[in-house]
Write a structure and sequence with these properties.
The protein is an all-alpha fold and 103 residues long. The chain has three helices and no strands.
């Protein structure tokens, strides 16, 4: 028996079973392997093959990231209301509407 989570002798159950046949067995093995070796492998990938590291990061990034500078048109009514209420709490006391000169 070894410390290698991919070694068949360290897996629970019959070593002749296919990992995929046990449903979540593959996920458990990969999770254990990544927990043990993942950070070092990711660091090595970043240092030795930065273009592949970038591909990995890009594959995990959201496909439609939120807009960097959202406009009012991009906001839902609830988001707009929360923003307006937050701004009101920072407004000076007095009239809530601008005067006739727009100030």
């Amino acid at each position: 028996m070894t410390d290698d989570p991919l070694d068949a002798s360290t897996r629970p159950g019959d070593a002749d079973d296919a990992v995929g046949a046990r449903g979540s067995g593959l996920h458990a093995v990969l999770a254990a392997d990544f927990a043990a070796h993942g950070p070092d492998v990711v660091k090595a990938l970043r240092q030795e093959r930065p273009h592949d590291y970038l591909k990995l990061v890009a594959s995990l990034a959201p496909k439609d990231p939120p807009a960097a500078n959202p406009t009012i048109e991009d906001m839902t009514d609830d988001e707009f209301t929360r923003l307006l209420n937050a701004l009101r709490s920072h407004a000076p006391a007095g009239d809530s509407a601008p005067d006739a000169n727009g100030a």
